[in-house]
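Progress note, project year one: complex with copper (II) ion.
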Amino acid sequence: MNSKLTISVIVIILIVVTGGFYVMNMNKTVTTATPADTNQPTNAPISESVVPSAMATKEITIEAGEFKFAPSAITVKKGEKVKLTFKNTGKFPHDYVIADLNVATKVINPGEVDMIEFTPDKTGEFTFICGVGNHEEQGMTGTLTVE
Ligand SMILES: [Cu+2]
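Model obtained:
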């Protein structure tokens, strides 16, 4: 094995890899968001022009207690990204499961919050439940409607 040739090849690979990282970092710097205009109200809706190629994200908060979800009926659109904040306001651990859509939060303890994101890819009515113990039988169910 020619060791000079081997070293040359390694050096060339290092240059290519380093150059690649440099270009990737350049792109990151360019796409970094600028701070919001301080004159704008902080909770102003994001204008649709910010995300021209995708539908806006639907943000939903669901609270879990004994033994119910609030709200227990939710409607979203097919293909719309759903950002779900799940809060346990009860006294027992709870989770949130939509088996038909392969969606589930972690089991969280009282006072905890879990956040998940999913994009429904089919329309219909899907039952969601709490999978802990017999909470489903005690009333922890609801319906997610995908239009
Ligand atoms: Cu539960």
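The first strand starts at residue 58 and ends at 65.
The first helix runs from residue 3 to 31.
No further modelling is planned for this target in the current period.
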